[in-house]
């Protein structure tokens, strides 16, 4: 800058000296004309450079402008440097902004930024999905005009954001439970965070149902047991009658024991998230054990056929596999009326998958129940299940064991004709 100024002063001095010399030799007019001529040279030069500067500024390419020599060089150079630095800074800020947006977009939670009038300044795509918003369309719209749920409007108007708000039946198919909370920031603006708690809510409901079911299942035998105990304690009973009461008490105690055992089995299976071990479980041994247990349970009331079409073993946890297979066999025995037929088959299909199938000529199951049979405590016929010592947990256990062995439980049933329960085991889980 200083050198530019000194060059300017130098030109003025030169103009003075030349006009003075001309004035002394040729008179006033020529001296003034020479001075004006010399001074107008840098003016014209400056005008030309200013015009160039204007053109480059208009095209937003000042930093590419070739530097003029002379007086304007330093000024333009500094201008160019300033603009370059500014652009670089702007680029960095834009990059930071993009990073923030990317981070907010990557969040599994919905995020909405609201200005002081609750107008949407920005929202991420999760929030768009939760509320059916389209940011490009809804930017700067008041959020309470777009989300018309009374509890939400009340929450916003109350301006009391210490507690989160739970809204159910939200989302595109009204199936989501959303927990949201507004956090103040800046000047009277708010960040609205929305969390999808649908699964948590479901798990909570399931836990409540489960506790209620277990209590209910336990209360009945306990009540019956206590009733018998009171009777035996307070009445003088004949030995025969007392023995009969003891037998009934035993069966109630047995029912509680089975329930607790099944609950523990289920809890252990659920707690174990690792796939099952790959011990070799011989199919012949399994089938022999199943046949013994089946005959003992049936007490000769059913006709059994055991088909072993393959000698291939199963790679898995022997105790779990036996428990799953015997659950299916015992269900067939318990639900098939006396004289019915039960077929138990182990084979390997064309795709090399193992198939363990239990077919019975029992009452069958209507199709609307099929998808729910593996739910805990789901029963088609409550009294039949209880009368035969069922806990309502058998198929839930089978399903867990199947999934730990990457196997599939398939159920086919025709009411009045019978059912087939099949466990399909992947070829990777079969040994020689
Ligand atoms: P449960 O202890 O009641 O037998 P499960 O989980 O083993 O519980 O079975 C769930 C329900 O599925 C049973 O209550 C019964 O209604 C039905 N079910 C299971 N196996 C059979 C079968 N072989 N024939 C008819 N119904 C069956």
Task: Give a description of the structure.
With 432 residues, this protein is of the alpha+beta class. It has 4 domains: 4-90, no CATH class; 107-196, Beta-Lactamase, CATH 3.30.450.20; 204-271, Orthogonal Bundle (Helix Hairpins); 279-429, Histidine kinase-like ATPase, C-terminal domain (Heat Shock Protein 90, 2-Layer Sandwich). Helices cover 55% and strands 17% of the residues. It contains 14 helices and 12 strands. The strands form 3 sheets. It has a 5-stranded antiparallel sheet, with helices on both faces. A 5-stranded mixed sheet has the order 7-9-10-12-11. Helix 8 (198-234) packs antiparallel against helix 9 (239-271), helix 9 runs parallel beside helix 14 (394-404) and helix 10 runs parallel beside helix 11 (318-335). The N and C termini lie far apart (92 Å). The mean pLDDT is 91. The site of adenosine-5'-diphosphate has 21 residues, from helix 11 and helix 14.
Task: Please describe the topology of this protein.
Blueprint: H1 2-26, H2 28-58, H3 73-106, E1 110-114, E2 120-123, H4 125-131, H5 135-138, H6 143-146, H7 150-158, E3 165-170, E4 176-185, E5 189-196, H8 198-234, H9 239-271, E6 279-281, H10 283-298, E7 303-308, E8 314-316, H11 318-335, E9 341-348, E10 354-360, H12 367-370, H13 382-387, H14 394-404, E11 408-414, E12 418-425
Parallel strand pairs: 7-9
Antiparallel strand pairs: 1-2, 1-5, 3-4, 4-5, 6-8, 9-10, 10-12, 11-12
Helix pairs in contact: 1-2, 8-9, 9-14, 10-11, 11-14
The structure holds adenosine-5'-diphosphate (ADP).
Adenosine-5'-diphosphate binds at residues 331-332, 335, 360, 362-363, 365, 373, 378-381, 385, 390-396, 419.
């Amino acid at each position: 800058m200083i050198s530019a100024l000194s060059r300017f002063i130098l030109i003025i001095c030169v103009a003075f000296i030349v006009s003075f010399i001309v004035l002394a030799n040729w008179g006033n007019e020529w001296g003034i004309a020479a001075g004006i001529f010399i001074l107008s040279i840098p003016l014209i030069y400056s005008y030309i450079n200013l015009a160039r500067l204007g053109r480059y500024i208009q095209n937003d390419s000042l930093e590419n402008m070739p530097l003029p020599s002379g007086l304007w060089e330093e000024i333009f150079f500094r201008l160019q440097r300033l603009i370059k630095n500014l652009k670089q800074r702007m680029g960095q800020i834009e990059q930071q902004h993009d990073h923030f947006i990317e981070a907010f977009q990557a969040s599994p939670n919905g995020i909405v930024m609201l200005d002081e009038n609750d107008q949407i300044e920005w929202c991420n795509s999760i929030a768009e999905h939760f509320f059916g918003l389209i940011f490009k369309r809804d930017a700067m719209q008041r959020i309470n005009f777009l989300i018309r749920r009374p509890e939400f409007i009340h929450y916003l108007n109350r301006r009391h954001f210490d507690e989160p708000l739970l809204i159910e039946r939200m989302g595109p198919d009204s199936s989501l439970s959303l927990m949201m909370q507004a956090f103040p920031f800046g000047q009277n603006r708010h960040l609205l965070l929305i969390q999808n708690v649908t699964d948590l809510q479901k798990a909570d409901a399931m836990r409540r149902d489960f506790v209620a079911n277990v209590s209910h299942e336990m209360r009945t035998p306990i009540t019956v047991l206590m009733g018998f105990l009171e009777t035996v304690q307070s009445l003088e009973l004949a030995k025969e009658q007392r023995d009969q009461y003891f037998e009934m008490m035993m069966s109630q105690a047995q029912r509680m024991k089975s329930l607790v055992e099944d609950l523990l089995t289920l809890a252990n299976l659920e707690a174990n998230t690792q796939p099952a071990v790959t011990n070799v479980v011989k199919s012949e041994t399994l089938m022999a054990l199943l046949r013994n247990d089946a005959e003992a349970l049936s007490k000769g009331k059913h006709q059994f056929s055991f088909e072993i079409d393959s000698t291939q073993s199963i790679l898995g946890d022997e105790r779990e596999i036996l428990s799953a297979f015997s659950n299916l066999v015992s269900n067939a025995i318990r639900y098939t009326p006396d004289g019915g037929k039960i077929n138990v088959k182990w084979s390997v299909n064309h795709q090399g998958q193992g198939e363990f199938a239990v077919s019975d000529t029992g009452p069958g199951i209507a199709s609307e129940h099929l998808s729910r049979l593996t739910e805990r405590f789901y029963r088609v016929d409550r009294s039949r299940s209880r009368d035969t010592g069922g806990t309502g947990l058998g198929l839930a256990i089978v399903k867990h064991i199947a999934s730990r062995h990457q196997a599939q439980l398939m159920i086919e049933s025709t009411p009045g004709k019978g059912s087939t329960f099949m466990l399909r085991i992947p070829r990777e889980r079969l040994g020689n």
